[in-house]
Write a structure and sequence with these properties.
The chain is of the alpha+beta class. The chain has 4 domains: about 100 residues, Cytochrome b5-like heme/steroid binding domain (Flavocytochrome B2, Chain A, domain 1, Roll); about 100 residues, Immunoglobulin-like, CATH 2.60.40.790; about 100 residues, Beta Barrel (Elongation Factor Tu (Ef-tu), domain 3), CATH 2.40.30; about 140 residues, 3-Layer(aba) Sandwich (Rossmann fold), CATH 3.40.50. The chain is about 20% helix and about 35% strand. The protein has 12 helices and 30 strands. It has a 7-stranded antiparallel sheet. Strands 10, 11, 12, 15, 16 and 19 form a 6-stranded antiparallel sheet that branches. Strands 28-27-26-25-29-30 form a 6-stranded parallel sheet, sandwiched between helices. The chain is globular, with a radius of gyration of 25 Å. It binds flavin-adenine dinucleotide (FAD) and NADP nicotinamide-adenine-dinucleotide phosphate. Flavin-adenine dinucleotide binds next to strand 21, strand 23 and helix 7. Its EC number is 1.6.2.2. It catalyses: 2 Fe(III)-[cytochrome b5] + NADH = 2 Fe(II)-[cytochrome b5] + NAD(+) + H(+). Its cofactor is FAD.
Length: about 500
């Protein structure tokens, strides 16, 4: 992120897009853009970028881009899709840049990459409406082939379904040995069933318009050893179903996880409690027909419409509290998501969040993130370096480490904050340290009052060398770090300077 000039915030951008100003220079016309034409628009004052087949004039957006003009210029006059996906594929650019839409790329016949789903872009001229349609037939052979590879060979049928008088059960044979419920996300609303299964770095989807209505609750069962996933629905009426339903657009597809669009469902705000003077714990209730476990170390995206524009930001679910014996609380049964969110006085998204009333709804995405629990499972010493709300991924991580990783000898949280008042869940952390001898917490303040007798300072090699130490020579360590980007980058560098290897460090980033 770079500092933006005054008057160049996201809100200012939204205002400009609503002003009626011609931001493309084409007076509302949409054109077909050839590669040669695109390449000509490669200067700051005349910059076009293609994302997923659509071309945008981003010159008016330059000064508003949170990552800075230079980042945007990397894709000037070219197809910036990969760059965009690497940095922030979750940003809702269609909504943010809709007034900058120049048109679409002229279609070139494309060879389908092996095993990938082809998206044919159908552009409705003049309507500014983009529709993604995937043809069912041309690449099914590839999909099947790829499915076999990813699901291990043996089964040609990947999913099946059966019924009793009252139940419909859909069975997916992934053949993935360590299949877990947290790799299965199910939503069922208005007869639309969507079941996504994460298989390595792929996503398999069952998506059907059900033949008959079902009740609200869904159940997910896993046979871990054989990788069988069962999604069970309760029939509304005890009648025989002739078929499961009509397949929807992405039904029975297996594609790279990154290529599957984010799916959102509306969740109800059920409580909002103060954690500190500026941070609140939001409890969001999932629809009854949603199964959405968020794995340790992963985040979700929240989406709100702010001044007519869809705005998306990432947040990391926490537990409702730090239970002293770390047993799962009864209220943490998967029905609710808990988010610890700092409200910035000039923050666009967090101000809107803070204005939500109990009972209001907000859209929540599927989880994402590249943290792997296996990194902790083999560690003897776990160090967690958190700054401010960078504490959020550490909550589930501590829970997991202290309850499920028997080889861990120490779990140490080094928590950086400005002042004492900013420390999140201080009391609970201190109590946990008293109860569990493997757990230790160290608070470090950058702007303490003179009464502070604890440690003071900012992240540095000398400070880290004091707190991050192997419990035994050669003990296996994992160091996780999360906070403002410069904090994280500096922390990683300091750790490397201290001799820790890349494999021993996990940085939480966007
Ligand atoms: P903006 O309108 O973007 O910014 C307004 C002002 O707020 C800025 O000028 C700055 O002063 C301040 N500000 C905004 N963003 C930041 C920032 N990131 N760091 C420091 N100052 C900032 N936040 C949480 O509170 N809880 C979480 O669990 C959480 N999880 C995250 C997970 C990931 C993977 C990432 C990348 C970020 C996470 N964040 C979390 C940050 C969150 O996504 C938003 O950036 C934050 O809520 C600010 O949004 P905003 O629109 O209110 O602020
Ligand atoms: P904050 O209160 O502003 O800062 C917390 C501590 O970090 C303070 O001691 C602060 O010291 C220090 N710090 C801030 N910037 C620093 C820098 N450039 N170099 C060294 N130390 C620095 O933090 P916050 O407002 O809660 O922000 C938390 C951040 O974590 C946000 O940026 C958020 O996006 C990020 N986050 C990321 C994830 C993820 O998974 N990627 C999850 C949650 C949160 P000073 O006194 O010097 O400011």
């Amino acid at each position: 992120q770079v500092p933006l000039k005054p008057g160049r915030s996201l809100m200012d951008w939204i205002r400009l897009t609503k002003s009626g100003k011609d931001l493309t220079g084409l007076k509302g016309r949409l054109i077909e853009v050839t590669e040669d034409e695109l390449a000509k628009h490669n200067k700051k004052e005349d910059c076009w970028i293609c994302i997923r087949g659509f071309v945008y004039n981003v010159t008016p957006y330059m000064e508003y881009h949170p990552g800075g003009e230079d980042e945007l210029m990397k894709a000037a006059g070219t197809d910036g899709t990969d760059l965009f996906d690497q940095v922030h594929r979750w940003v809702n650019y269609e909504s943010m840049l809709k007034e900058c839409l120049v048109g679409r790329m002229a279609v070139k016949p494309l060879a389908a990459p092996k095993g990938e789903k082809i998206h044919v872009l159908v552009f409705i001229k003049g309507s500014r409406k983009n529709t993604l349609v995937s043809p069912a037939s041309p690449n099914l052979a590839h999909i099947k082939e790829n499915k076999k590879e990813a699901f291990a060979s043996g089964h040609s049928e990947i999913y099946d379904w059966f019924q009793t008088d009252s139940l419909i059960t859909i069975v997916i044979y992934t053949k993935q040995k360590d299949m877990k419920a947290e790799l299965v996300i199910v939503d069922c609303q208005d007869k639309r069933l969507r079941g996504e299964i994460i298989v390595g770095d792929h996503s398999y989807l069952v998506e059907v318009d059900l033949y008959h209505a079902v009740q609200e609750d869904v159940a997910v069962n896993i046979a871990e050893k054989v990788g069988k996933v069962e999604i069970t629905l309760k029939k509304k009426d005890n009648i025989h179903w002739k078929m499961l339903g009509q397949p929807l657009e992405s039904h029975n597809t297996l594609i790279k996880r990154m290529d599957r669009g984010l799916f959102y469902r509306k969740c109800k705000l059920v409580s909002k409690t103060e954690v500190t003077h500026d941070t609140k714990l939001f409890c969001l209730m999932l629809p009854k027909s949603t199964h959405l476990p968020v794995p340790t170390g992963q985040h979700v995206y929240l989406k709100q419409i702010i001044a007519g524009t869809e705005v998306v930001k990432p947040y990391t679910p926490v537990l409702p509290s730090l239970p002293l014996d770390f047993k799962e609380l009864s209220c943490h049964d998967g029905a609710c998501l808990y988010l610890m969110i700092k409200i910035y006085s000039c923050g666009l998204f967090t101000q809107a969040l803070d204005h939500l009333q109990i009972g209001d709804y907000i859209s929540v995405s599927n989880p994402e993130g590249n943290f792997k629990k296996s990194q902790v499972q083999t560690s003897e010493d776990l160090f967690l370096l958190a700054a401010g709300t960078g504490f959020t991924p550490m909550v589930k991580l501590m829970n997991f480490a202290l309850t499920e990783v028997s080889c861990l000898r120490t779990v140490k949280l080094i928590f950086f904050n400005k002042t004492e008042d900013d420390i999140l869940w201080r009391n609970q952390l201190e109590q946990l340290a008293l109860r569990d001898e493997r757990f230790e917490v160290q608070f470090i303040l950058s702007q303490p009052t003179k009464d502070w007798v604890g440690k003071q300072g900012k992240i540095s090699s000398s400070l880290l060398s004091e707190f991050v130490k192997r419990s035994r020579k050669d003990s296996k360590v994992l160091i996780c770090i999360c906070g403002p980007t410069p904090f994280t980058e500096q922390g990683v560098q300091c750790l490397k300077d201290l001799g820790y290897s890349q494999e021993e460090i996990h940085a939480f980033t966007a």
